[in-house]
């Protein structure tokens, strides 16, 4: 019997629906359940061929457990090694290299010094920064947000430099991104599973949280939807995420990738709606079953994106004599 586990926290709708859907398919030799952990011994395999991770970003113990499981052959969704290293500012740089439009973005050092540092720790950082050049590059209005994500936590809309410096005072030890505003006409939040299943969901981030997923959206051109779909696939292939959401804001007909580092995206029926919930439950079950069937015991069964694969396969540069 090969087991699929789901590791989760406060979620109440998606995890049980996922477990039930896998088991309802009644595929011989495959069974799903919530992950159960009573001990973690180094280099000893877990009892799961596949684990869907929904919580380790908030629980370091779980992240360590998943890395240990992965090195022993579990297909962890998403790859815990890559997830540990990834962040949104890098995502933007990768998108630029992939030819996908993104807002102009700069990274800003934390307002307060991190623990165990002092002024000597920042001798390589000019002070003050070249704020004039930064503001000229980004323009106003602009958005400031944490470089490593966190939903809508500490996200600011800024109208001018004075507004920036006032809000910057509130950010403490957070490393922030300053980002060009995209004045969008359409906005999409897109699930991408297994690098092939895509669900484009019309979304309005300016609405109250429970009304952001549009249940009766307008009609969009097939060309626009295809451009968005191909952008979703290209980004997830480069990043190597099995389970992710990508957000696109459309300005003057051009889809800009806004946020595409969401490896534990919202899957609650109460926010995404019944239709989207049915899609994510069904396709998450299909993905997990496919990964169980492809699992090779004791080998690396993680997904690695093309960014990492290309780096590994690149020919080392020979030293010049």
Question: Topology of this protein?
Answer:
Elements: E1 2-7, H1 14-24, E2 30-34, E3 50-53, H2 60-71, E4 75-77, H3 80-85, H4 88-97, E5 105-108, H5 131-138, E6 142-146, E7 156-158, H6 161-168, E8 176-180, E9 186-193, E10 197-202, H7 222-239, E11 243-251, E12 254-259, H8 269-272, H9 274-294, H10 306-313
Parallel strand pairs: 1-2, 1-3, 3-4
Antiparallel strand pairs: 5-8, 6-7, 6-8, 9-10, 9-11, 11-12
Helix pairs in contact: 1-9
Structural description of this entry:
The protein has 321 residues and is an alpha/beta fold. The chain folds into 3 domains: 2-84 and 286-299, Rossmann fold; 104-180, Dna Ligase, domain 1; 186-262, D-amino Acid Aminotransferase, Chain A, domain 1 (2-Layer Sandwich). Helix content is 33%, strand content 20%. It is built from 10 helices and 12 strands. It has helices at residues 14-24, 60-71, 80-85, 88-97, 131-138, 161-168, 222-239, 269-272, 274-294, 306-313, and strands spanning 2-7, 30-34, 50-53, 75-77, 105-108, 142-146, 156-158, 176-180, 186-193, 197-202, 243-251, 254-259. A 4-stranded parallel beta sheet has the order 2-1-3-4, with helices on both faces. A 4-stranded antiparallel beta sheet has the order 5-8-6-7, sandwiched between helices. The protein has a 4-stranded antiparallel beta sheet with strand order 10-9-11-12. β3 (50-53), α2 (60-71) and β4 form a beta-alpha-beta unit. α1 (14-24) packs across α9. The chain is globular. The N and C termini lie far apart (58 Å). The model has no long low-confidence stretch (mean pLDDT 95).
């Amino acid at each position: 019997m090969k087991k699929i586990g789901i590791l989760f926290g406060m979620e109440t709708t998606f995890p049980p629906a996922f477990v039930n859907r896998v088991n309802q398919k009644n595929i011989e030799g495959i069974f799903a359940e919530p992950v159960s952990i009573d001990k973690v011994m180094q280099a000893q395999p877990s009892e799961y061929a596949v684990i869907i991770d929904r919580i380790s970003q908030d629980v370091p113990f779980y992240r360590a457990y998943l890395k240990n499981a992965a090195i022993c052959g579990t297909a962890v969704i998403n790859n815990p090694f890559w997830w540990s290293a990834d962040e949104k500012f890098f995502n933007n740089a990768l998108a630029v290299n992939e030819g996908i439009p993104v807002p102009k973005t700069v990274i800003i050092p934390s307002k307060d010094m991190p623990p165990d540092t002092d002024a000597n720790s920042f001798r390589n950082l000019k002070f003050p920064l070249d704020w004039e050049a930064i503001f000229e590059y980004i323009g106003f209005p602009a958005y400031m947000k944490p470089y490593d994500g966190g939903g809508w936590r500490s996200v600011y809309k800024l109208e001018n430099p004075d507004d920036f410096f006032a809000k910057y005072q509130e950010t403490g030890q957070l490393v922030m991104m300053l980002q060009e505003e995209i004045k969008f006409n359409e906005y999409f939040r897109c699930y991408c599973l297994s690098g092939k299943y895509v669900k484009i969901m019309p979304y309005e981030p300016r609405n109250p949280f429970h009304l952001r997923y549009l249940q009766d959206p307008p009609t969009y051109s097939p060309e626009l939807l295809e451009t968005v779909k191909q952008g979703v696939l290209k980004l997830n292939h480069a990043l190597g995420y099995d389970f992710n959401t990508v957000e696109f804001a459309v300005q003057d007909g051009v889809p800009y990738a806004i946020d595409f580092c969401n490896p534990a995206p919202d899957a609650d029926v109460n926010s995404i709606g019944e239709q989207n919930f049915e899609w994510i439950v069904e396709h998450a079950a299909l993905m997990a079953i496919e990964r169980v069937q492809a699992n090779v015991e004791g080998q690396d069964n993680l997904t690695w994106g093309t960014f990492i694969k290309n780096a590994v396969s690149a020919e080392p540069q020979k030293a010049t004599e």
